[in-house]
Predict the structure.
Amino acid sequence: MRKNSLLVMILIAACLMPLVLKNAAGQESGNKPAAEASEPGHAYRVDFLVSELEEGKKINTRQYAINLNSGEGDELKIGTRVPVEVKQGEIQYLDVGTNIWCRLRDSQNSAPSEHGLKELSWLKNDVMLNLKAELSNFAVPDQQADRMRPAIRQMKIESSTIAVVGKQMVVGMVDDPNSKRQFQLEVTVARLK
């Protein structure tokens, strides 16, 4: 845990240091720093594995994948739009199913090249991964209070973490409050050529 915290602090410092140095240099000379030309980011494939576990055994697994450019975000939605009457004659739609939003940044987007920070080996295979995953479904019939208005169970995982390219990692796990089951979200980031 300390190692991960230290790694995050070093990454944040590495990202902020060039800005501090440029700002200080601009104030000393009285000039505004010139805009840096940015290089295009790399393309990545992010694989998501949503597993349902009961007593530690996987009983169901779903796989999803998305291709992203570094610095950009994208979203996957799989499910059903359910009409719900909120007021007399007023219909609102709820999304029921799986919704995953993901954004990643690599060292190319995080550390300017003029300071040589991109060349550090601990930055080369790491990406900053931000994601939100929402899993929802209808409650089983014996958990429904009103058959005309179905109950919807929802589990949500939000994460911001550093992922190593090519290595699978668990980014979140939640317990199902209505059973002895757990839902686990794993990601694997692969760099596309």
